[in-house]
Write a structure and sequence with these properties.
By secondary structure, this protein is an all-alpha fold. It is 79% helix and 0% strand. Helix 1 packs antiparallel against helix 2.
Length: 243
């Protein structure tokens, strides 16, 4: 591939990311303003639900579909098919690998006394466990499918048109992890630490997508991974474990 083709792919990946995040933010802002105008009180639970549906679902999904339409590509471009037995094994292996990598990273951070930034949605869940229940369900229905459609099916796939997998997967993973900066709380240094940890499971999602060429696989892997983390946090909150 030429340097020009690589540059175009990188620009496209960044533009798609900005468009997805921007569209999501505008949609959520519109809903919140409309709710305020009609006197609907937005609790943390309602606000997160709106963000999930309108940002992750409609924002990311809408930009992904608009991109396919603009290029005249069918939905099959992203690779969606009924999971085979091999796909199911890839989901299981990816799920376990992602959890193990994050657990190892957590141990390293603890032993080195490195501060990581907490996720604002998780903080809301600690205050109201109902938020965690919502996030567990949404992980499988909205978060996994929505984020994987844009960042694996579109961004990573676009990068793969100009780059080998060993370059496209890390680039897509870094881009995806970076957008979570705004969803974290704390100092910039702590946010960067959390983003660095987030790259690890994201690499796994990219690898299983590359190996199976089926978007359902990383969507399920991602959804199960997120649901497990929120589920563990829910158990800890219910057991009144100090945070």
């Amino acid at each position: 591939m030429t340097a020009q083709a690589v540059a175009r792919a990188l620009v496209a990946a960044l533009v798609l990311t900005i468009a997805g995040v921007g569209a999501g933010l505008l949609l959520v802002l519109g809903v919140l303003l409309a709710a305020d105008a009609v006197g609907v009180m937005m609790t943390p639970l309602r606000t997160i639900a709106v963000s999930l549906v309108f940002a992750t679902g409609l924002g990311f999904g809408g930009v992904a579909l608009a991109y396919l339409r603009r290029r005249g590509l069918p939905i099959s471009y992203v690779g969606i098919s009924r999971p085979s037995r091999a796909d199911a094994l890839a989901v299981g292996a990816g799920y376990v690998t992602a959890l193990v990598l994050v657990a190892i990273a957590g141990v390293v951070l603890m032993r080195t006394e490195t501060e990581a930034a907490p996720n604002t949605a998780a903080q809301a869940g600690i205050a109201d466990p109902a938020v965690l229940v919502l996030l567990m369900l949404a992980s499988l229905v909205i978060i996994g499918p929505g984020e994987e459609l844009l960042f694996r099916g579109i961004v990573q796939r676009r990068l793969r048109e100009a780059l080998p997998a060993v370059a496209a997967i890390p680039l897509a993973s870094i881009i995806f992890a970076a957008i979570h900066y705004l969803s974290l709380a704390g100092a910039p240094e702590a946010r960067i630490v959390s983003i660095s940890v987030l790259v690890l499971p994201t690499l796994v999602f990219g690898v299983v997508y590359e190996l199976t060429d089926n978007l359902v696989v990383p969507a399920l892997t991602h959804g199960l991974y997120n649901a497990t983390l929120f589920g563990l946090l829910y158990i800890a909150v219910s057991a009144d474990v100090p945070m």
